[in-house]
Amino acid sequence: xxxxxxxxxxxxxxxxxxxxxxxxxxxxxxxxxxxxxxxxxxxxxxxxxxxxxxxxxxxxxxxxxxxxxxxxxxxxxxxxxxxxxxxxxxxxxxxxxxxxxxxxxxxxxxxxxxxxxxxxxxxxxxxxxxxxxxxxxxxxxxxxxxxxxxxxxxxxxxxxxxxxxxxxxxxxxxxxxxxxxxxxxxxxxxxxxxxxxxxxxxxxxxxxxxxxxxxxxxxxxxxxxxxxxxxxxxxxxxxxxxxxxxxx
Length: 248
Hints:
By secondary structure, this protein is an alpha/beta fold. It has one domain (about 1-245): Metal-dependent hydrolases (TIM Barrel, Alpha-Beta Barrel). The chain contains 9 helices and 8 strands. The chain has an 8-stranded parallel beta sheet with strand order 1-2-3-4-5-6-7-8. Helix 7 (about 175-185) crosses helix 8 (about 215-225). It is globular and about 45 Å long.
């Protein structure tokens, strides 16, 4: 089993303890995500000392108005480090609006260009920005992961363009029926699962900090939504993750 998106450096508990607990729960691999340059450095360190942990490195759209948004070249150097497997998360968030839309778009485009130059997949955050998210991806020929999928309006584009679609704990919520329907429509070779730790704990752990071990609950919900066996779905998701991230 795999957790394809966790912010281990943002968790209140020691990351190494969380990794150990995940392994005990049957989670063999974790993609830990850095958001901003300091977070990216911390994430690479976590990956270096924990076999089975890889790093996705990016500057979050919430940080698009920050000084480090101009330091994408530095991000590019970090992405050449051992253990780095993806660019992101990047993307657009017009719901929170922590940064001007124009600044978010500039940063998004710069990181898409970086991913293309390095031949890495891109992990995309999209909230209340379906049209702009899809438009900016039109010219990107690499692999795309729609992280923490919560925009049913992007589903048609994702299916048409063969993007990977990753579901988080919100697919387990009583109000998540639309997401569960979307999960049932994703092709078997394009579905992924994540925790987005420490956020979005699945329903059985809701109200507590999330962690990679909890991905088992999200897999169970996805299997039920798709009418599949849990173990078979978990194995397929692990194979999908290996294909998109090209473990090295």
